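REVIEWER CHECKLIST
Item 1: Sequence provided? yes
Item 2: Single chain? yes
Item 3: Sequence as submitted:
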Amino acid sequence: MNDNSLKIRFIQGILWKFFERIGSQLVCFISSIIMARILLPNEFGAFYIISFLVSLFSILILNGVGGALIQKKDIEDDDFNTMLIFSFFFSCFLYLILFVLSPFIAIFYNEPVISCALKILGIVVIINSLYSIQSAYISRKLHFKRAFLVSLPSTIVSYVIAIYMAYSGYGIYSLIFQNLISCGLISFFLCFVSKWNFSLNFSFDRLLSILSFGKYLMVTGFLGIFFNEVRGLVIGGKFSTEELGYYNRGASFPNIVSSNFDGVITSVLFPILSQKQYDSNIILFVKKLISCESYVIFPVFVGLALIAEPLVQVLLTEKWISCVPFFQIFCFQHLIGILNSTNLVIIKSKGAGKLFLQLDIIKKAVILIIFSFTVLFSSKIIAMGAILCEIVALVFNSAATFKLIGYSLYEQMKDAFFSVHLTVIMGIVVFFIGCISVDHIFLLLFQIAGGIVSYVGLSFLTYNKCFFTLLTLLKMRG
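Item 4: Structure as written out by the authors:
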């Protein structure tokens, strides 16, 4: 595949993945606001614990199997068939563990509802055994349009049902069935649109070959979710599920934004870089990417942190005002986290699975030390430790990137902060608008408008390269 063809497919892939993420997350965002107005913080706290455990087990399938299939240089249908058979039986084993442990977890958190709810949502682990293969197949072929046509309708249907259940008094089970229905529908319809013909062909040699790389992604993915979310589990156990609900709700807004950027970049960049892993010009491609993604990401998260209080009051009401400090903390965590994600994609695309695992173990050891210190204090200090953890992770990840492609942390910071002065000026404008004494909804609108106008206007007046690059991409799409 020549560079021009790859560039076109990359742009098309980015746009379709962006439409998929934005569409699904917009539905999730609106629906979660409606459900947050109905349900109580402690119900969201209990659901956080359940979804964490399910995600912890699911990542073993999604990362270990799906990621390895995308990275493999030469692949055949029998590779997908082999991994589907393996992942199905492996997921059944994982679900059995969740089923047995569920009563004890409910006793530990003093939340009886967790036992039954975990057994129901745990079925998602088995569904993901199919989804991981389907997603890898579509990503490998760069058929992101098909994923978009399946994901959005499935998400809408699942949330319509969930909102009805919430209004009908089903409480936490409305959240449980939303996740279960969404995953089930997406996987069901992908069976038809992926155009992959499954067979029972199984090869032990192919399994070992794929797992030789996938086992490292499996372990790092498991450790990644555990160490990223362990703060919430501790807050739920040490303080209360209500405090955990505030923590989770404060994290959810920045997470929605971050998952869109991160999901688009990771899903499309990984297969692209995997195909370019022997290209000597890969560093130029990555430098432009980091400059442009930072140009978009920095003002978004800084702006969100500054409008957090009126945003929560307008969307969630005063009931959730205690989540604002968590909201602001996680904005700055994700600002750094996006850069980390790009570095991790580079490492995975080079097939450095063992280095990926070794690096992750070192980072997790440092994170554990930071967490052991912050856990002695308040829930907000625990959350603030996440920012320091991201900084430490960026240092180690960028060191690995420098080893693989010669792109140092210093060079990354130069590219990332190329447009930071625009973010600073925009932040000052938004901050002073926030000092105006008006109704919350008008204050929110004024701050958003002031931030957008100041940032776009300054970008145009200073002839910012990233601004005009993004405009060019949009025109190409048009």
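Item 5: Key structural point noted by reviewer: The mean pLDDT is 82.
Item 6: Recommendation: ____
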